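Translate sequence into structure tokens.
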Amino acid sequence: MSDIFLALSALGSDKMGLVATLTKYLAEHQANVEASHMAILGGEFGMLMLVSAPKASADKLQTDLPALAKQTGLHLELRVTKSPTEHRQSAMPYRLMADAADNEGIIGRITETCAAHGINVVTLKSESYPAPVTGAPLFRMNALLDVPQTVKISALREALDSVAEANGIDLELKADRRD
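Result follows.
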């Protein structure tokens, strides 16, 4: 029998040892971490993991989750999901990078354009930071996209260039290899 895939999310106040506690819990329940994203934003710790486990272990993970939440002080959620290969569509990977003066709505304007072209955002990281000399707030975004093979890249570039020009954004879209 094959493993079950689960998405585990965690959010709460950051404190030393959370990653160790969470990964120990998973190992004790015979769960394997397939992929993870973790970050501290402000004083909050956030994590999203894809784990695989045999059915009996997955059931025990769910049963024992409230005790782990109490121990860590985190809001935890665990749900069954698809395997990464089952979920992925036939698509071409592209990297989209953006730099601009920071202002509200940049991510929304860019991703709205992607969605209008049927593109799925696989990962997206963004940050605001001060300009070296002036200290003015700057914005940087790095996203990995799944572009369906039916999408004309020239039309996508034209749409993104229009958003970039209207909003003072430096955009770069390039094919990305995932090894």
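Note: Residues 4-86 form a domain with the Alpha-Beta Plaits fold (CATH 3.30.70.260).
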